[in-house]
Fold each of these.
Amino acid sequence: MRTVLVVCIGNQLVADDGVGQVIFQELAGYKWPETVRVKFLGLGGIDLIEELQGEDLLVVVDGVQLGFPAGSVVELCWADLPATQGRPVSGHGLGVREAIEVTRKIYPERCPKEVMLVGVEGRCFDQLGKGLSLEVAEAIPEALGRIVSLAGCKPRPLFRTC
Amino acid sequence: MTTTIKIDPVTRIEGHARVLLDCDENGQVDEAHFCVNELRGFERILLGMEAHTLPQVTARICGVCPTAHHLVAAKALDNCTGVEIPEAARLLRELMYMGHVIHSHALSLFVLAGPDLVFGLGGDAATQNIVGMAEKEPELTQKGLRLRTLGQKINEVIGGRGIHPVTAVAGGLSFTISDGQCKRLQELSTEALSLIQDLFGQTRDLLLGLFDDNPALLRQLNIPTWYMGSVNNNGGLSFYDGILRVVDEKGALQREFPASDYDKYIVERTVSYSYAKEVYFDHQGSEHMYRVSTLARFNVIDGIDTPLAHREFEVFRERFGRPCHNAVVQMYAKLVELMYACENAVVLSQSSKIKGPTRVPAPMKAGRGVAHIEAPRGTLIHDYEIDDKGIVRAANMIIATQQNTAAINASIKQGANALPANESGEKILNGIEFIVRCYDPCLACSTHAIGRMGLDVEMRQGGEVRKRIVRGKYA
């Protein structure tokens, strides 16, 4: 069975940037097989490097701004992940793509064999304390379905809901 | 006719700032202003809050030095309530702090400044970044990033979280340490010390190589100022505690005082061009520009208590003297402090005294609590007035970067005037940004934009744009 790491990224304080956190909470409510790890990271930068353990598949879950209608769920492979331009402005300026490129060079054995992004197109990324936009909240079941399908297994709910 | 040059924003520092240069008719920089664009409202936000929440709330001021705010707020509450915290709590807080210093200094040296060390100044921005660095120096990058992670993990074992810790409370620490945690702290600290010993020589050589390749940096960036930093009972380097020592521009001792007396000597002033206040040291009625930071600490201390760092400190002082006014050299001093933090973490983690009770009752009462800590970027002071119901009625914070603003302005003015007028735009940008970065300012008070922002520099004469240097998103 192939190993999978699902990394959810986001900031729950900032409107649609919180979608990764909300999805993480949903994912954490399931019992996953031992081959699948689900993690939450506030930022997808340097800390991602330490999380990687040479998985067959890395699934990055994040709110995105790619120009689709809000609430669209997009699945992108590694080659299509957008890169941050040039030098980072600060310690925050290192993106997922850069983190994986750095990993490829310093810990080649830890690099995931395949990387997929499950992104939810957001409407608002600059309002503090606002919560998710309606379209983004409504897109969460579809995003969960994509993640489960990519992970290639059916997790069991930890708690029975009525 | 005057010229205004604007650099907005400066990259690879924590937070965002812009630089304004006002030039006279001969093109010489008349005044330089390092401007903080964000308003930090914390001194007002805290009013009316319950005092016992201060360590948790103030940790959120900054994602770069959260542990400094977290611990100094807890120390201020200890002082206000008049309790003596148990020794285990004191040592564990200090160990948490060493983890934070390792994290912060490793990030600053290997991620933010690393590309300058590996590629030199004036390289291609497209490759002069951490990805390019990993390509060229994979082992250095791997060890540097690992060191940062180890610091964060030490911070996490004691603080409960790697960033924004939660465990320091008035009266000590909210938990006692288990044997398993103790063992983990020893492993993390030992690995950190072994890594810094591996990294030290190569990093120092890269730094000295950078100085050799750019002799102007050492020649020009010498702004004589006073310095302030903490020392322990032996006059040694001290991050978590100690008294404040101030030396003048010749290195002569001018004053030693407990942080609770800070308002007798430190004068704050608001300025129109920036949201950060300027700070001066008042000595016998006259105001002196002073600096805090790694370099300031190295100018006030007599030595370092751990053997490896002390040996490197002596090499440093032999070469750069006391006081050393050169902001560029700060990166070297930071490397020595990184060695100290790793050595001290090993000592603390192996002490049997970290086990045992960590908390005494500290009921809130009306009063004033003042405390300080050496944040990675310099002395940080918190000052609170608390009423009889335990509510915060007044809050004042002296942050490292604001104490350095006057010196940053003086350095930019000097550095900009030294740049040849016919230099390329990119070189001018890099040169001035480099000066600002040497001071390692941290403006991460409220918000962060993520990713790279553009730069737009206009040089004007008589209102007309004579030259425009643009890169990034404005291009």
Amino acid sequence: MIHDTGVLIGRNLRLSLTTRSFFQLVVSPLVFFAGFAIVLDRLLTLRGVDFGQFLPPAIVMMAMGLAPVSTAFFIGRERQSGMLDRCRTMPINSLSVLIARLGTDAVRSLIPIVVLVAAGHVIGFRFAGVPSAVGFALLAVAFALSFCLGAAVVAIRSPDPESSASALFLPMLPLINLSTVFAPMSVFPDWLEPVIRINPYSVVVDALRALAAGQPVSWWPPLAWIVGLSLFFGLAAVRAFRRA
Amino acid sequence: MTAIVELRHLSKSFGTTVALDGLSLAIPEGSVVGLLGPNGAGKTTLINCLTTLLRPDSGSATIAGHDLLTEPDKVRAHIAVTGQFAAIDETLTGRENLVFFGRLLRLGKDEAKDRAGGLLERFGLSAEADKPVKTYSGGMRRKLDLAASLVVPRPVLFLDEPTTGLDPVSRETLWDTVRDLRSTGVTILLTTQYLEEADQLADRIVVIDHGKVVAEGTAQELKDRVGGGAVCEIRIADPGVREKAMAVLGRSAEGEDGPIVLPAEGVEALAGIVKTLEAAKIEPDDLALRKPTLDDVFRSLTGRPE
């Protein structure tokens, strides 16, 4: 299984060396970054927010939120081309295709994180230390992968890869808007507070910011979300990939 | 000869649709078997079951001595599949595709490269080996797809409509490859829409319809069933007249349109047909005597043209 997964990841990464991926993983996070930096800088600084520390984790969350779209895209493509079926007629572990996809997505997710941390450096984003940087990256990737598993389930079941990819794009917008990704808790009305507080985007972005700043992190809420989603989608994905 | 693929009463339903209805079949080792059937006859379901993609509802099957249901992994180690879709990566080169499959099937790096190079040469793809597949023609893709099935030689090869959509020249070269493979002792189960392809390649032909085997034999044996030496083909454009002709000639299976085909070995049989038409005052638009084809077999068995 390790060998099969390794070979598949090698191929997946080779397939990722495209202009499309470069735009997805490098250019578009930078465009988001620049766009939001221009719009939000003064607004948030006026409210007393340390903008340099606040913005990069927000754009990282956006990039992580888009990772499942490419998971669905690639699985859909493998399904349509017949590659998935071909793999399933070969004496390789049926789960290695799924694990290789997630491994590839983990690597793909790291790219925008590195790009955004570098861009953030320019506006004053700093890590408290090496462990906080490593924790930051691991948490962000784990968050992305828990949603990628969900996307894998949708893609393997959906008859139409195009529509499944765009369907996955939709839930991200309300989740991001009703969270502390782009706005501090103080801007939301009181009655919305419980929703904002429980939103997985809020708990993860709060943990990322605390990690970067070297402040105490409340680990339970983000880990509960990530582990819960991974178990739920993971079991469904394993079943979907094992069918037949 | 022993059977390398053996199915016993294989059934598979999708909801209320019965795709395979207790199908039994034995494929002798080293033979090429052509699987024919109209659309919806169960060909694809059968191939999907045999290649471990679908689990049959009941019945059993063994491939190379391994049980399909209890040892799917061992079955997978003995089969190779080339489907209707070219399951190869567009952005990779032909060589990269083959090396990838070799590595996935546990060949060492150098071995995988050697095998890839050898196959590219054998399929006449050496000149294009290092170009991305998206620059390949349809025929080249099919060849590469077939080559990908041969990276690690397997005793049983499934070819699901290998030449659908190919031009006649590419088809011929693919046929040559299949003949080559046969000569190396590979057992091949081939589905095709082209009866001529089955006629050219297959040692035995199996016709299935409604999930069951409706006829089995060599191409010649099947042709003999519709009329040993010759058949008479009658064409009548007017549907009413055609129906009347069918009635007087005692035919029912030919379906809605197309020629009426009758066994007509010898002058006497032909004369009989002509006299019958004359007595019923039916003037055919065209009447011809010819050798039977698999098309005739197909029509007479399924009532539908392939």
Amino acid sequence: MSSLTASPSHKKTTTAQDERVGKKSTLSILLGRPEIGALVGAVALFIFFAIVAPVFLSPASLATVLYGASTIGIMAVGVSLLMIGGEFDLSTGVAVISSALSASLISWYFGLNVWVGVVLALIVSLLIGFINGIILIKTKLPSFIVTLASFLMLTGLNLGLTRAIGGSVSSPSIADMEGFQSAKAIFASSVNIAGIDVKVTVFIWLAMVIIASWILLRTKIGNWIFAIGGDEKAARAVGVPVVRTKIGLFMAVGFCGWVLGMHNLFAFDAVQSGEGIGNEFLYIIAAVIGGCLLTGGYGSAVGGAIGAFIFGMANKGIVYAEWNPDWFKFFLGLMLLLATVVNIIVKKRAESSK
Amino acid sequence: MGKPTWRKLALTLAIVPALGLAACSSTGGRAPEPESNGGGGAVATTERIKVAVITHAAPGDTFWDIIRKGAEEAAAKDNVELQYLSDPDGGRQSQLIEQAIDQGVDGIAVTLAKPDAMKGSLKKATDAGIPIVSLNAGEDRFKDLGVFAHFGSNEQLAGEAAGEKLKEAGLKKPICVIQEQGHVGLEARCAGVKKVVPDTEVLYVQGTDMTQVESTATAKLQADKQADAIIGLGAPFTMTLLKAKATANSKVEVASFDMNSQLVQEITKGNVLFTVDQQPWLQGYMAVDALWQNYRGGFTIGGGQATLTGPAIVDKTVAEKITSFAEEGVR
């Protein structure tokens, strides 16, 4: 960043060629990426667990680790984009459950084909994102407050509506309804690769990361996202549709919540209305480890995915290593801290060597 | 967001349910409303009294639903106006007791998961002459707090009962899955199992996220090939452990604590060995009923000792008999 503050006249006298149009080496491009620190952290963690728990390297174990990572990672895609756009969302954890409950309760109560519930749940999820976005724009309150309010309201709605409609705090099982099997095949099946069952969420996750990266790096919308996260006023001044982009980002988060919500529903047949609380932080942690700045304007979708992978490795690696479970949370916290510190060090190195 | 988008949204909202009508599921779903069968019975002729049931339930836990149903049924029979309140935070649960005192209730039923936090407000209640019973948690402390009766199960005993049952089945190395780290009752269950089966191992999972429960349990089953049983400490978690077992391609036996209708089905099918039920419905019912009995004739039940509502073992031999009760949500 320091090179940008140097005055143009100074630059002209010292270098013959403007560094902005000069060719960079592949290494310096690589080191300049937001996710490079997380990548180094992930490789280190992988090697570490491969040494302390050899079972970690078996294909079946890796599939489990990837599954654990994917259930965080799917949301982290949306959350990363939103964070690059300068906002964040505390309602994501419960919004996932809201979506699952909507699909389940609507199909169950009206006796509809499960797919109708799935489509209506998508509308509910997008609507939650839309409402978050529109309140943010209209009130100009920080997203922390707006989404904290929607977090609380959704928590209450999840409980209240589930009990009012289903008569219990857990949604009734819809496993025997029409359309369940086909929906399960899409959202919660396994794919057999060389004898190893890999959960379909892993592929959904990877596809979403690729799409999000393409949007961020190759489209106009991607530029808008970086622009509003970097400096909203300046972005507006150069004609970026700030309102539409922000609402769109919240709706993208809603979409990710729907995907994960559908997985929850079809993997476990029934959903407990109190679930999901606290997960919003895991998604944010994944994005931050992956190099997204809390202040916006910087980050990548791939970074969020690597962050989720680090979380998955730490979470499951401790179990594979068969460490005393009393210390589980401590190790988890320590690993997250180390990963983030490595991230910062690598990023600083990269910036100073530019 | 221009106007056309709004219009599109409204149109979508209108069309989708219409499509839905053409896409009904002929299987499953909500059963048609049954002919009213509850509430038709005789109600006690005593004057209407007001009872507050104040628990430490976390919102959204199916277990507490059953307790609440028991309390509601007793209230309906005993001509009691029931107020059901809960807060998992000790301090706030204590404030709920004070609010109930302010409202002039005729009796309080309280769970004593955090007895020390309840001390002050329960003292206020006894000073105001309000009779108190405790339920679910607080077996060893209820007497000191001015509570005249307790209804609950002993978690340690429940764990030991599960241990005995595992031993009977020849299982030696079970994994006890705790969904909330540091929860005294859950730790006591696993400690009870471990007392009978010394090689019991504890696994902590994040109970608020089923996907993490499944993947962590799968990881454990993949890593630990010696394990021969896995125990869930709540019915929904046991259902997830069954999925983890399938994913890990493991041969372990599955056992459980607590109950719901799906779990009873799995026991009937033989996929789950047994569950240890503490009969929570009884806890809610008895707590409200004991307060009414106290109002009716100054009775105190239990003779100063805790009344145990469990452990009751449910295995294949009894599962079928209680299936309909589990579906109704009372078991």
